[in-house]
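Thread: "does anyone have the structure for this chain?"

Original post by V.I.:
We have the sequence but no experimental structure in hand. Need at least a predicted one for the grant figures.
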Amino acid sequence: MRSVWSVVAFVLCLSGGSAMAGPASGSVRSKTGAILPKRAVAYVVRDARDAAPRVEVLLTDAAIDVSRLRGERDPHLAAINLAALRDHDYLLLWVAADGTVTMNATYSKTMTQYINDTEGGLMATFTVNTPDKIEGRVHSPVPLKSIDGASYTIDVTFSAEILTAPPSPDPAAASR
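Reply from O.Q.:
Generated one for you, tokens below.
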């Protein structure tokens, strides 16, 4: 009987140790509809044009299994291809070290995207912005204009533990 309880305790430790998505709230509202996120997941990404890492925050109403992103070399690609995101709208925020933010709000049914950044009218404030956690608000104080002239608004809050990136491959080790 003691070994059964040991196994149960071990399984509970494993399942309890897996990271979960953090909370999100607010909306992106446009002529296409409303994106109403409930969950936030954050991970480190790199831009091919800029060697500096950024934090990507995925906001959605879908239940996200964070363990599916842990250890991914390209967590952005892994995230947007998660089965859980099929038929779900989502918002991606890229947060640079200096606090600037770029966003892409994607409506799944039409694949309509609204793109903007803190130089184009978004405002971002962070209550926590450390290598381990990000928490804040991104909003537009006035309606923003899309390329086709349609207006939209954004006002979202989020909190998420940041998944750590896998170590970069050692080029010297690869040649051994």
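V.I.: this helps a lot. The chain has three helices and eleven strands.
O.Q.: and The chain has one domain: 19-165.
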